[in-house]
Amino acid sequence: MKPYSRLAVALIIVASVCFAQAPASSAIETEGLSNGRRWSRMEINDRLIYIIAYHDGLMAGVFYLGSGTQKEKIARLAEMYPATMTLTEIGVAIDTFYNTPENALISVPRAMSFIAMKAAGVQQAEIDRLLSLARKVAADSFAPK
Questions:
Q1: Which one of 40, 113, 118, 121 has the fewest beta carbons within 10 angstroms of its own beta carbon?
Q2: pTM, 2 dp
Q3: Residue span of the structural domain in which 69 resides
Q4: Is residue 10 part of a domain?
């Protein structure tokens, strides 16, 4: 093998190592949103800040940018955030949600919507059906294209 051929092969190997994507198992975002892997790496204060920021972002989005009546806006918010729960309770509920390894790839906002459903008394069978679909969608987002 000629010296420049060896150099080319070495450069290709180095480039492939440098530019290779991290395996899906280390992915901390699903479709651009934090997922259970990122959540589990956060400190407790960061988790509480995340919940507050999520709530405030929802409020701004639903009430300032959303359309519809006040009642419709409140209903939309209730689908995405468990307003009847305290910050600590929400944090514990998210921890519990992600204690199931199959939920790790589900985004934190989607996890929050499942918690909101439970808090609102949605039938467990319906939550399970939607959770199964969410797991599939999250897994598919990491499937090779």
A1: 121
A2: 0.79
A3: 34-140
A4: no
